[in-house]
Write a structure and sequence with these properties.
Layout: H1 5-50, E1 54-58, H2 67-82, E2 87-93, H3 95-106, E3 122-127, H4 134-146, E4 150-154, H5 157-198, H6 201-209, H7 214-251, H8 259-290
Antiparallel strand pairs: 1-3, 1-4, 2-3
Length: about 300
Amino acid sequence: MPKTVDDFNKSRLRSSNITVVISISLVLFLVGLFGLILINAQKYSDYIKEQLVVEAYFDEYLDPRDSAKTLKFQEETFAKIKEQNYVKQARYISKQQATVLAKKQLGIDADALFEEDIFPASVEVTLKPEFVDPAKIDGVVTQLKAIQGIKDVANDNQLTIDVYNNLNRILTWILAFSILFLIVAIVLINNSIRLKIFSKRFIIKTMQLVGAKRRFILMPFIKEALILGLIGSFIGLLALGGLWYYFTSQIGTPFVQDTNQYVFLVIIILLVGVFITVASTIFATWRFLRSNVDDLYYS
């Protein structure tokens, strides 16, 4: 137990600092968790969109007996398709491969039903996620049809529209919850800092009454807030990293899948923790610097 007034004040100061750090850590941990969910939800959304492939079928007006000329013509057409800005990946499917795929899809093993390769050669086109937008997909199909050597393009427009709208709806809700938690983080950290400064309001006013300038009074509080914000942010990031490592190790996925986005999330968490802590400290301290002595008893 504290034996003197100084010991008591130091003990209360440590307790106050620990409370602020824990508050910052917990809140930023939740903000970071929703950030990770949003990043990976976007990745999963892009992955789902990439499964909505478009089939471009070759024009077969060439003489079937001139296989070399046909193959060369298809290779040229395939190369043109891969050069398009909306194409993420393109896979050439020969007539023989199309027949094998048809057998698998129909569950038929009997070669008698497929005496010859009756299915046309095609290109399976995987679009970039941003071009799966229903407003753009029709234009993509039109451009594919305009490529010389392509006879027809197959695309399930309704399925594309349904998947796109559902995924965007989910991402919108996750983004909304992330913003909500960011607001909650600002409010909670601000309240913790205000309570901490409130306990020192008489010290602040006493320093001001003996002639200390406002900047001189503010600087120690700002430095302390900066340190507390950094400590709270690092603890929150460590807890978040530990949870994410455990989760990814359990499901067998890489710990870091996109370095740029993860680094950006870490920077955001650090900036949020430091900025809110410092800003709240300045506003709370400035409030007592502007108040009268009598107001300190009713604040």
